[in-house]
Amino acid sequence: xxxxxxxxxxxxxxxxxxxxxxxxxxxxxxxxxxxxxxxxxxxxxxxxxxxxxxxxxxxxxxxxxxxxxxxxxxxxxxxxxxxxxxxxxxxxxxxxxxxxxxxxxx
Length: 106
Hints:
Layout: H1 2-5, H2 7-23, H3 47-80, H4 82-88, H5 93-105
């Protein structure tokens, strides 16, 4: 990937510039080459493929209960008109939303 995107060419150019400066020879060069590194045989692991399909399912399961509780509280508050009553008594919007935020953060 370094060779395809030009990194090795830039690195070779800089190495040649340093070599020419240090030796004082204008024709001194370093040849660039890529040598494959010996490694073990690749073993395919199926865990990544299996977990890729299961992560969205588990995230859905995690968030079903909190979201349903929020929806339940919002609808019950709309039915009881609690927010309007609190605004009539002088409660600010900031305090109201801060109470919601603190309740669900804790």
